[in-house]
Write a structure and sequence with these properties.
By secondary structure, this protein is α/β, with parallel strands linked by helices. The protein has a single domain, classed as Rossmann fold. Helix content is 28%, strand content 16%. It is globular. The two termini are 29 Å apart.
Length: 283
Amino acid sequence: MDKKNPLAIAKEDVGRGSPIGFEAVADNATVIRRFADDLMAEYLAAKAAGREKVVFILPVGPVGQYELWAQDCNDKRVSLKDLVLVNMDEYLTPDGGDFIPLSNPLSFRAHMERNFFARLDADLAPPPGARHFPDPRNPQATGDLIDRLGGVDVCFGGVGITGHLAFNDPPEPGEPLDRAAFAALPTRVVRLSRETRLINSITAASGNIDYIPELAVTVGMKEILASRKVRIFMNRTWQCAIVRKLLHGPVTPTVPASLLQDHPDARVVAADVVTDLPLPQLH
């Protein structure tokens, strides 16, 4: 294993020796199925441990797990009435003062309603008051809610091409790189990096970067890192480099997900293709 250059770590060595738990699975479908299964298992485990309210931080991407989880709950009659969902982030209007409208195809709020809440039997669904998105007009309310509920049981998520968790992009060139300060960043309104907007335009807007909003509201590194457990799911071919950096590279704000190396219970599940060497290739 090449410890000096994480990008040169061989496919079979990805995850070996990392303080972050790692598992490679066959393909995207297996990742999504595993995501849904872990959502159910972690909810039931928290309830069995005596949690009155189970608190999850949840992403929109990867996609596909919520439809499966809703169907599993309906089939097995598992009530999620005691679940409080804190969604990671949402795109904002150009002035940063409000969410993009629900009619926008990129709306995370609409995605959760369409692909999860509306699919759950009404008697099993979390009540509307337990469905929380960070508010750009009052970002502190997210941290206050989490504190009142006794902390986050599990933070689920993916990782962006910059290594971001939620929309916590790395500091821009010239900005401070203090590790402790970056780890303490709370829920807030952020300006998305050009790299994040570009890759999101490829995955969600057919390459139309002009369609991707410049501003978003995001849960902070503070809330993510304070979660009792962190479970990350990766399924994109362009994550081959960043998975090596977050598992094996230095712990640095330039790769926000690398801070999970300091977390006591963080794990990554990735499709096998994510472990391929990130080598250049002309197509």
